[in-house]
Structure formats: structure tokens, C-alpha cells
Design brief:
Chain A has 297 residues and is an alpha/beta fold. Chain A has helices spanning 2-7, 84-92, 114-119, 137-143, 153-158, 162-180, 196-209, 226-243, 254-260, 278-282, 285-292, and strands spanning 19-21, 33-34, 40-41, 44-55, 58-69, 73-77, 99-104, 107-109, 122-125, 214-218, 246-250, 263-268, 271-276. Chain A folds into 2 domains: 13-21 and 28-121 and 212-297, Rossmann fold; 135-209, no CATH class. Chain A contains 11 helices and 13 strands. In chain A, strand 12 and strand 13 form a beta hairpin. The chains are: A alpha/beta (297), B alpha/beta (667).
Chain lengths: 297, 667
């Protein structure tokens, strides 16, 4: 599959300005392994160490550490206001934590601009859909490839030489994603006219267009009905399986999280209260208390 | 180019036709498929290479003569190639309905004993595996040995010890050309007019599906005759979008396409069919009435939302079209002024409308499968679309009768197709025999014998009569559906249902009345049309069920029924079929619930059992009834739908006048 081949191009083009080279410390449990259904889980892709994030006097994240391994689906769950979205924003580099270190692919990451994040091979979707409503589905997805376009504005305006060749190549990639997510029938429809569930899918398509190594999904199934959730779950699994994309996601629907993810981080009031496989997390007393509430005497 | 004048020697199988086309039409397109937003094309030469590679791959996997190869997937070139490749190997292709649930597939797989299955994608593979388990649970020995899939997506995790991607099978076939080429050529040479071309399972409005065995003679003779009848050319384009398991698709996309050498275009996905059709602009088109109904409904909905000027233009010029369009199409004399008006109408309305519908280039269009509402039929005819009717069935390789150009009417199904003889039995049932008459029902000698007699006459199960003067056949109804009311007058439900279905709001109607004092109806609303109306009138609804039970919806449906009653009252034979009471069903009739066939024909027996409580209420005078209905979800799970359904009376009209009783064809 050409898509898969080209996939290896995207991540890894990190800039020396934003990262500090240094050795990765190999934790205890980072031996690559193969899951029961045949997926390869590699070494540590991102390591978050003792992260603390404050907004003024409010501590949104309190001294949290966990890692994301290559090829896995990593979920972050927790009740409302637990700090999940903040955590995702730290991972994406949008927030810079006051304390702690973010290690990505063996390098310590400093503050970055959004395009630098994109070039690192990190793409995301948003909790509140952030698409261009007036543009077609196709154009929206094409924006996912902007960072990879090299032709200058004049060439693009004249549709000449590099610009033309480039656009055709990018369009081909985008068409494969359209095919993958089965949205051929809305290719030319303005996004504003689409129902919510499809918009979510278009957002995923745009994120995939950037050919990310790490895909961040902020509540990909919020507000969906059962059928849409099933579709989205299948797409997330297929993305992970076909392209080997590492996925970190936030989700409220516990059934979905437990079915999809390899490992789960549980947050509550900015603290990490659980971390492990879905089964481990499900039987963790702290997690049960956080979700079901606990009697205060 | 008159192909039928060519010598037929040697052209006695589909693979032989393919070989001829690869030489004669080598660089002309044979298949197109839209993929990744672009139409990809294969010439006849390229198609031959692809099919040959696949056939060699089948041989390498051990496909034997006489094996059955099931094919389940949407219309894609690769699936058509699989059918021809199977034929090359001396095997028999068995296309299945891709939306069938696992248990239905299990039956067909078990009955045909298929050793190979070609699946479109992961979803179909899952269903086949489930179907195998069902067969196993019933104690039948498993026959399935190889699963071949077209779309690789999601298939990585499956046990591949007996599974292959179609592209890989082709690669292996190409590699095995030296080793197996001779064997394949020998098997192709063995094919003759009497070898089986395809086995198609009937959708079956009653009982289990039956495997209809069609020989090369059936398919090729039928394709030759029907291609000549309509003057089909190698430059024609068809859109292949109807289920591959349906005989119509096989005749059009394989039989006629290979005989004539025209191009088969496959849409990108079922949802993009309308867009793809507009892009291709087929010259030869085939659709069951529901497709035309659906298109007309969507046009009407959009016109409701159009501005006042557009709406006026549309209404005005459609009136002109209805008056003169059919006459122009049939070449009858039309006044100069009307010709000018029609010309202006074409500029403002018909041209753009036809373009939107994808009918700009259409030369010949057919509708069949069931009767089409005359108003729908006339709508397309009046636009200048040469839409015709044919009457046929799987057992006849489609064609029994069809309408010649210039003799098209909405109430007949035409004259016997070339080479086909038709006769009407004393009880009104239509019989036929011809070159397309099927060989047998697979493993079902009893049914074969009761359907086809020793002289080759086949009972259609439909009641009809030849019209005096024109020689056109008119079908009244399914012979077993035509009955008598309690007072002895004729009951022909289809006739009334078709009138009802013309209204965009009515998706489906089931009229009941056999042996009863009066007729009643179960109505299905069209969610598109009624939902659009509700939106424009600020009527909030949460579900299909709620909308269906809305008082204003009832009022609308009631007015439709009364209009139909008035029109039915004009027909002296059928005036008794006016609808006295009706209800709007709380769920859509669905093939998954066994209420319709996969070709969307209502199964009356199932409905009268399943909705017995509703039907009883229609006749005992109650004005509402509580009911629980079992529904099947797409994934096969079952649930219960509870509803209180209202029943209303409709006004009936006195019959036009008791004229002399004509001979009733379906007595």
C-alpha cells in the first residue's frame, strides 16, 4: 500500500531549535511486544515526567508522569474537570508545563510553535469541531497537508510547475484517506451542511492527512449515537492497525475506552489515580471511587 | 455496426466473447470504476489480462470443473471479473445479495455447496464466516475452502491459511501462466452452449430462495436478441449499480456488455451513485420503479423548496411536457407552437433537469421488476427520456415481453421479446417459452417440474391478458395475489398500491381485502418526503414512529387515499378495491425483517401474519390498536418495537357505472 509506505516520511523531521538532544532513559517495561491481535507495540514514543501545569493559582495538572508507546492506543479518562484536555494540550505542545519534562522520540522537547508540532508528526482533533464550515470536505482535508507543501504563493497562484505536481500528489493522498474513512459521497459538500457525526469524521480525516506518527483525539465520540460510535471506533482501530499510528485519546464513554485502548491513564482533580491495562484500571479501587463517588463520613 | 450479423461460430460462452472483444474492441473501455475520486478505466484487452490472471490464480488454488464460486460484494470490476474467471475454469459463478444477513447466505452457501467465495470487504468476510458457523450448527458438512477478498482493509488480523486477497491471487496467476496456461485454455475450449453460465438465486416472495441455472445459450441468445431489439452499440455506457445477484444486472452488465462490447461503469460507492451517474451519463439505463420513484420524489422535494420563479417555470413547462413530450418521443404529429414551447421548456427545465438526474445522454431506459405508477412513467417520458417497460423474470433470463420504440405505454409491458412465445392460460396466467428459458432449479426437480412443463412452457405466476388490437401484454397482478372480495368482485391489490405509491409521501402500501367485505391498507410513509414537509411546517418529531402517527400526516395520507379511491372508482372492474380504512405503519417495511424481498417486493404472506393484530383491528371497527413488532437490526440482533397505531376511515366513491362485465383475465 502506497499510503503505508509514504507514511514513514512524515514524522521525525524535528527541529534542533526546539528540542534538546539527550539520552532517553529506558524505563523498566519498554521491551517491544506483539499484542494478542497481532499489532506491534514498540518502545516509548513520548515520556511525560512529573508534569505540573498551573493557570494562575489553579493547578490543572499535579505532578503527573506516564508514557505513550509506539503503536499503542493510549486513553486518558477521568471525570469532568479532571485535567484531561489540559493534558492533551501539554502532549500537543500547546501548553508548556511549569514543571516537568516532555520527552518525544528520545529528545527533550522545549516550547514550540504549532507548525513545528505538526512537523514533528503530531496531529489532533478537537472536542469542539474546528473545521472551516464554508469549505468543502475535500478542501478541509487538504489543509491537513499544508505544512508539507513547498511551492511558493506565486507558483500556487499561477498553478504552475511544482505547485501543480505537488497538489496532484497531495490530492492523491487525501483521496486515499477519503476512501479509507468512506466519505466519498460528501467529498464536495461544504462542511457546514454536514451532520455532527460526519464532521467528526472529517476532522479525523484532516488529522490523518498530516500523516501523523502520534494522533491525538479529544473526545472523538462525544455526542454521537451508538451507530456513529461503532463506526468511529472501527475507524480508530483501522487507523492504528493499517498505518501503525500511535493514538492518544480522551473519551468519556467507558465502554468505548475499555474496548479500544491498550493502556489507560485515569485522572481526577489533576492527579493521576490509575494507570494500566483496561482490566487493571477497572479493578482499581481509586478509580471506582472517583467514578462512582465515595461516602464521606 | 451490426454484430448479430457476425458468425456465431465459437461465440458460445462468455469467455469466448471476451476473447473476441479483446481483439475487436481491444482499446475501447470495457470497465470503468471511480476510485480515489477518479474514473479508472480498463480496455477490453486489459480486462482480458486481468480476468485471465484471476482465472489462473483460481486454478492455482485448486478450483475444479463444476465447482460453485459465490461472489458477494458491490458492483466492482473485480467482482465481474471473478464471475468470468470462474467460468473460464469451468466453474459456476453464484452472485449473492451483499445486503443479505448471514443466515440467508448460509442457506445459499449450503445449498450451492460453494467451495470458493469472493468477498468484497471485511464485512462480507465476517458474514461468510458467520454463515459457515450456521451451516456447521445445522450439521451440514462444510464445503467452503477458499475465501478471496477484494478490499484488504482490516483483513490483516484474519487467519490466512485459507484466505487470499484478490490482487494476490492474480499475482500468483500471472506467475503460473507457464504452468497452468495450457490447462486454462483447455478448460475454456470445453465451454459450450449447454454449459452453465451462472446460477442466480431468486429473491423469493414465498419460501426459500431457489437456484436458477442459466446456460450460456440462455444468456447469449437473450443478450443477442435484446441487443438487436434496442440497437445497442459498443459505444454505449451503462451504470452497474443494481445488486449483482439480480438477473437483470447479469444480463446487462455481463450478457449484453460482452455481446455488444459496451462499457460497464461502476460507481464509487452506493451513496455516490447519483453523482457518478451524472458524471458518466449512461446511454442505456435500467432501474426498478423504486429508483425512478426515489428520483422523482427528490426532484419534487427540491422544487417545493425552490423560489417562486423557478417553481412557476417548473410547473408551467412540466405541464407543456406532459402534453406534448410523449407524442414527440413517439414521433407522432405535434403542432409548431407546441414544438416551440417544448423547445423552450428543454432550454429552461428539461435539459438542466435531465442533466441533474444523469439522463442527458440516455437513448434507451428500462424499468422492470414491478409495475411502475403511470404518473411516474409519464413524468420521465414527457422529459424526452425514452423510458420503456419490460416484463421478465430470472427464469426467463429477464426478457419475456418488452416495449418497442414508439409503442410505449404505462399500462402495458409490451410485445413478446424476439424469440419468445407467450400464451395466456385459461385461468389468465401468463406462460412463456424461449431461448432464455432456464435449465432447471438447482437440486430441486419438483419445483422445476411444476414450473416448466415438458414442452418448455414456464408459468410466470402472474395474471395478464393481451390487449385487443395492439397485441401488448397487460399484467394485472401476481396470479396468487389477485383474488375476490366477499361479494365476488375482483381484488387486485397491486393496482391500487401503485396508485398510492405515486404520492411522494407514500413509500410503500399494502392493500388487504381478499375474501373480505371491503379493502383496507397499511401505509408506509417516505421519511425523506414527509420529513422535509415536517421541517418546512415546523413540526417537531423525534422518531419515525412519532412522525408516522402525527395527525397531520394522517390527514395528508387520508387525502391521498381518497384521491386514489376516486380514481379507482372509475374502473368498473376494480371499483370494489377502494380503501375503506387505513393505518400508517409505525415502522418501515424492511428486507432484514423478512417483510420484503431483497429486491424490495412486499411479501404479503409475512405481512398478513406479522401484522395480524393490526389487520384484525382494521376490520373490527376499532380506532386504535396497541402492537408489539419484532425488528431486526443491521447487525442481526433483534428488538421489539411497541406502538399504538391509529386507524382512520377514508371516503369511498360510487363506482362509475356498472357497465357490462368484461372477461376478467384473472378469474
Amino acid at each position: 500500500m502506497t499510503m503505508q509506505d509514504s507514511h514513514s516520511l512524515a514524522p521525525g523531521r524535528h527541529s534542533a531549535r526546539t528540542t534538546t538532544p539527550g539520552p532517553v532513559d529506558q524505563g523498566a517495561d519498554v521491551q517491544p511486544y506483539v499484542t494478542a491481535d497481532g499489532r506491534r507495540i514498540g518502545g516509548v514514543l513520548m515520556d511525560l515526567r512529573n508534569i505540573t501545569l498551573r493557570f494562575g493559582g489553579v493547578e490543572a495538572i499535579k505532578n503527573i508522569s506516564f508514557d505513550i508507546r509506539e503503536g499503542e492506543i493510549r486513553a486518558i479518562i477521568g471525570p469532568n474537570g479532571a485535567g484531561k484536555s489540559s493534558m492533551l494540550n501539554v502532549i500537543s505542545g500547546f501548553y508548556v508545563p511549569q514543571e516537568g519534562e516532555v520527552w518525544f522520540k528520545g529528545f527533550r522537547r522545549g516550547p514550540m510553535r504549532p507548525y513545528q508540532v505538526a512537523r514533528l508528526g503530531i496531529a489532533r482533533t478537537f472536542q469542539n469541531i474546528a473545521l472551516f464550515d464554508g469549505m468543502t470536505v475535500l478542501d478541509n482535508i487538504m489543509t491537513g497537508r499544508l505544512t508539507m507543501m513547498k511551492s511558493n504563493m506565486l507558483q500556487q497562484a499561477l498553478w504552475w510547475g511544482t505547485a501543480e505536481r505537488e497538489e496532484i500528489a497531495h490530492r492523491e493522498k487525501v483521496e486515499k484517506i477519503i476512501d479509507f474513512l468512506e466519505i466519498q459521497n460528501i467529498r464536495k459538500t461544504p462542511v457546514g451542511r454536514l451532520p455532527y457525526g460526519l464532521k467528526k469524521r472529517v476532522e479525523l480525516a484532516r488529522a490523518l492527512a498530516a500523516e501523523p506518527g502520534l494522533l491525538l483525539l479529544d473526545e472523538p465520540m462525544a455526542g454521537m449515537n451508538v451507530e456513529e460510535k461503532e463506526d468511529m471506533s472501527r475507524f480508530i482501530l483501522d487507523v492504528n492497525d493499517e498505518f501503525g499510528t500511535t493514538i492518544a485519546l480522551i473519551e468519556h464513554d467507558m465502554g468505548v475506552v475499555m474496548d479500544l485502548s491498550d493502556r489507560v491513564v485515569v485522572m481526577d482533580y489533576g492527579r493521576k489515580i490509575g494507570d494500566g491495562t483496561p482490566d487493571e484500571v477497572r479493578n482499581n479501587q481509586a478509580v471506582i471511587d472517583a467514578y462512582l463517588g465515595v461516602a464521606h463520613d | 455496426m451490426n454484430i448479430s450479423a457476425q458468425p456465431e461460430q465459437g461465440l458460445r460462452s462468455i469467455p469466448a466473447l471476451l476473447a473476441r472483444n479483446a481483439v475487436t474492441y481491444g482499446i475501447r473501455p470495457a470497465y470503468r470504476e471511480k476510485e480515489f475520486g477518479i474514473w479508472q478505466a480498463w480496455t477490453w484487452k486489459e480486462a482480458q489480462d486481468e480476468i485471465r490472471a484471476l482465472a489462473l490464480g483460481f486454478l492455482a488454488l485448486g478450483l475444479n470443473r463444476g465447482d460453485y464460486v459465490a461472489i458477494v460484494g458491490r458492483n466492482r470490476p473485480a467482482h465481474y471479473w471473478s464471475m468470468v474467471a470462474a467460468q473460464m475454469c469451468g466453474a459456476i459463478p453464484v452472485p449473492l445479495y451483499q445486503d443479505a444477513v448471514a443466515s440467508e447466505m448460509g442457506y445459499v452457501l449450503g445449498h450451492s455447496g460453494a467451495r470458493f467465495v469472493v468477498c468484497g470487504d471485511q464485512e462480507q468476510v465476517d458474514k461468510i464466516i458467520e454463515a459457515e458457523e450456521i451451516i456447521g450448527a445445522e450439521g451440514q458438512a462444510p464445503t467452503l475452502e477458499q475465501i478471496i477478498y477484494t478490499d484488504k482493509r482490516g483483513m490483516r488480523k484474519y487467519d490466512h491459511s485459507r484466505m487470499n486477497a484478490l490482487a494476490h491471487v492474480q499475482d500468483e496467476g500471472r506467475a503460473a501462466q507457464q504452468r497452468l496456461g495450457g490447462e486454462l485454455d483447455a478448460r475454456i475450449a470445453e465451454l459450450d452452449y449447454d454449459s452453465t453460465c451462472v446460477m442466480l438465486y431468486t429473491s423469493g416472495t414465498t419460501g426459500k430462495p431457489k437456484g436458477v441455472v442459466l446456460s450460456n445459450r440462455n444468456i447469449i441468445e437473450t443478450a443477442r436478441n435484446s441487443s438487436a431489439f434496442d440497437g445497442l452499440r459498443p459505444t454505449d455506457d451503462v451504470l452497474a449499480y443494481l445488486p449483482m445477484a439480480w438477473v437483470g444486472d447479469f444480463i446487462f452488465s455481463v450478457g449484453q456488455a460482452y455481446w455488444t462490447g459496451f462499457c460497464v461503469n461502476c460507481p464509487e460507492s452506493p451513496e455516490t451513485m447519483m453523482t457518478d451517474m451524472r458524471e458518466i451519463g449512461p446511454t442505456y439505463f435500467f432501474a426498478p420503479p423504486r429508483v425512478f420513484e426515489g428520483q422523482l420524489t427528490s426532484v419534487m422535494i427540491r422544487m417545493e423548496d425552490a423560489g417562486r420563479v423557478k417553481k412557476w417555470l417548473f410547473d408551467h413547462y412540466m405541464a407543456v411536457a406532459r402534453r406534448v413530450g410523449p407524442a414527440l418521443l413517439d414521433g407522432r404529429p405535434v403542432g409548431l407552437l407546441d414544438r416551440l414551447r417544448y423547445w423552450a421548456g428543454r432550454l429552461f427545465v428539461y435539459g438542466p433537469l435531465k442533466n441533474t438526474l444523469g439522463f442527458s445522454r440516455i437513448r434507451v431506459g428500462y424499468t422492470a421488476g414491478e409495475a411502475i405508477g403511470p404518473e411516474i412513467f409519464d413524468f420521465y417520458r414527457s422529459l424526452g427520456i425514452n423510458l420503456k417497460q419490460l416484463y421478465g423474470q430470472t427464469e426467463a433470463s429477464v426478457f419475456i415481453t418488452q416495449q418497442p420504440d414508439g409503442q410505449v405505454r404505462s399500462d402495458t409491458v409490451g410485445v413478446p421479446s424476439p424469440g419468445v412465445e407467450v400464451r395466456i392460460a385459461d385461468n389468465g396466467e401468463v406462460f412463456y417459452r424461449g431461448p432464455g428459458t432456464f435449465v432447471e432449479y438447482y437440486k430441486n426437480a419438483d419445483s422445476t417440474a411444476s414450473t416448466k412443463d415438458a414442452e418448455g412452457w414456464v408459468a410466470t405466476g402472474d395474471a395478464g391478458f393481451f390487449e385487443d388490437g395492439t397485441g401488448h401484454l397487460r399484467i394485472i397482478d401476481r396470479a396468487k395475489d389477485v383474488g375476490k372480495m366477499a361479494d365476488g368482485s375482483m381484488f387486485a391489490p397491486k393496482y391500487v398500491e401503485n396508485k398510492l405509491k405515486f404520492y411522494p409521501n407514500v413509500l410503500e402500501a399494502v392493500v388487504i381485502g381478499n375474501g373480505r367485505d371491503y379493502c383496507t391498507a397499511l401505509i408506509n410513509i417516505d421519511l425523506n418526503a414527509v420529513g422535509n414537509w415536517a421541517e418546512r411546517n415546523n413540526i417537531a418529531y423525534a422518531s419515525y414512529q412519532e412522525l408516522a402517527g402525527h395527525p397531520q400526516v394522517y390527514a395528508t395520507i387520508k387525502s391521498h387515499i381518497e384521491e386514489v379511491n376516486a380514481s379507482v372508482a372509475q374502473d368498473e372492474m376494480l371499483a370494489g378495491c377502494q380503501i375503506h380504512r387505513f393505518l400508517v405503519l409505525h415502522k418501515e417495511l424492511d428486507a432484514d425483517d423478512g417483510e420484503m424481498t431483497r429486491t424490495r417486493k412486499v411479501k404479503r404472506g409475512v405481512i398478513s401474519d406479522k401484522y395480524a393484530d393490526l389487520i384484525q383491528a382494521l376490520y373490527d371497527g376499532r380506532d386504535s390498536v396497541y402492537t408489539e413488532t419484532e425488528v431486526t437490526y443491521e447487525d442481526g440482533r433483534k428488538g421489539k418495537l411497541k406502538a399504538t397505531v391509529r386507524i382512520e376511515d377514508a371516503r369511498v366513491f360510487p363506482p362509475a357505472q356498472p357497465a357490462m362485465i368484461q372477461k376478467v383475465a384473472a378469474e
